[in-house]
Amino acid sequence: AAITLAAPDGAELPIWHPGSHLDLHLPSGRRRQYSLCGDPDDRHSYRVAVRRIADGGGGSIEMHALQPGSTVTVRGPRNGFPFVGTGSALFVAGGIGITPIIAMVREAIRTGMDWQFVYCGRTRETMPFLDEIAQWDQSRVFVRTDEEHGLPAPGELLERAAPGGAVYCCGPTPMLNTVRREFRDCRATALHFERFGPPPITNGRAFDVQLVSDGSVVTVGADESLLTAVKKTRPDVAYSCQQGFCGTCKVRVLSGAPEHLENRLTLDEQQGHMLICVSRSAGERLVLDI
Fold first, then answer.
1. Is 58 exposed, middle or buried (0-12, 13-18, 19+ CB in 10 A)?
2. Which residues pair with 31 in a beta bridge?
3. Distance CA 137, CA 116 (A)
4. Residue 196 scores a pLDDT above 70
5. pLDDT per position as a tens digit, 125-162
6. What are the backbone angles phi and psi of residue 180, rounded to the nearest 5°?
7. Pairing assessment for the beta strands 285-288 and 207-211 based on DSSP bridges
8. Interatomic CA distance for residues 92 and 118, integer angstroms
C-alpha cells in the first residue's frame, strides 16, 4: 500500500534526497523505517510504500490499518543509502526494495544520466510501481520474475553494469549476497546497497541470555540473532531496522560481556548497553534489562 504523510498544519516538510527513509513511531509504540518513494520536489507530503507481512513483527499490519487523518510521529528524513547522481548507474531492486531505488531512477532520468534498471520479484502481481516503470525507456529496463525467468543465472543481475559505473542495489538478503559476491567480476567499480532485513550470521556461537523481568533464560542459537531468540519469549520487545543503525532495540546489560557488532553506540554507551538485533555475547551468558 502507498501511504501519504503530511504535516497536520500543512507546513512545508524537510527536504529529502533519493535513498532517504523516515523513522515512523506508530501508535502501538512500534518503530519502523520506510524509504521515501515520492517526489522530492513535493515539499508538503511524504510518500512511502508498505508491503503487508501477515507473520512479521506487526508494523506493516499496523501501517495498513491507518486511516485518513491518523496521526503518527515521524523522524527524519535520514539517508543511509545516498545516490551520487553522476556517471553511469545500474539499479537493481528486489521486491519492496524498489522503494528507495525508484526515486533514484527517476532522478537519473531527470538529469539525463546513463542508466539501466533490473527489477526482480516472485510474480508481477507482487511487484509495485510496474505501471509507472512501463512508461520508462524499455531498452533500459529489465523486469524479471521467478515465475517467468526462474532464478537468476550467475552474473545475470549485473550484466548491464557499465564499465567504471556504479551499482545501486536494494532487496532481500539472498539477492544482496549474490550481487556482493559477483560484483568483483562485473565492469562497474562502485557498489552501493541497502539491506531490507537482518544481515546473515556467520561464524556464530550459541549463548544464553537471562531476561531480568521474569528471570527466564533464553538460548540464542549459533545461527540466530539475539533479537530473534528474545522475541520468542517477549514478542513485544522493541526493534526496527534489525541492522544495527536505528538504536530502537538498545537494552541495558546488567551482567556479561557483549560482542558489539554495530556502529551506532558510542564507546561510553557500549559499556552498559547493546543493540540486540546484531550484537551478541562475548561469553557464555548475558543478563539483560528486558
1. middle
2. 25
3. 10
4. no
5. 999 999 999 999 999 999 999 999 998 988 999 999 99
6. -65, -40
7. parallel
8. 5
User: Mean pLDDT for the chain?
Assistant: 92
Distances 222 to 40, 200, 240, 263 between C-alpha atoms, Å: 43, 11, 22, 22
Could you tell me the three cell numbers for 240?
526496527
109 backbone dihedrals φ, ψ, rounded to 5°: -65, -45
Taking Cα atoms as reference points, which of 255, 261, 251 lies closest to residue 283?
255
Name the residue among 264, 246, 241 with its Cα closest to residue 59. Answer: 241
Report the 10 Å Cβ neighbour count for 257. 12
- Tell me how crowded residue 103 is: count the other CB atoms within 10 A of its CB: 23
Q: Is the pLDDT of residue 266 over 70?
A: yes
Burial class (CB in 10 A: 0-12, 13-18, 19+), 199: middle
Look up residue 227 and give its three cell numbers: 533479537
What's the chain's Rg over C-alpha atoms? 20
Residues 7 and 9: their CA atoms lie apart, in Å, by 5
> 3-state SS string over 46-76?
EEEECCCCCCCCCHHHHHHCCCCCCCCEEEE
pTM of this prediction? Answer: 0.77
Average pLDDT over residues 182-205: 86
HSE of 90, CA atoms in CB hemisphere, 13 A: 23
Rounded Cα distance between 21 and 81, Å, is 9
Residues 145-166: b if buried by 16+ CB within 10 A, e if exposed: beeeeeebeeebbbbbbbeebb
Using CA atoms, how far apart are residues 185 and 156, in angstroms rounded to an integer?
A: 11
- Spatial CB neighbours of 27, under 8 Å, sequence gap ≥ 6: 62, 70, 71, 72
Cis preceding-peptide flag for 77 (omega within 30 of 0): yes
Q: Give the integer Cα–Cα distance in Å for 92 and 109.
A: 15
Residue in 89, 92, 96, 135 with CA at minimum distance from that of residue 112: 89
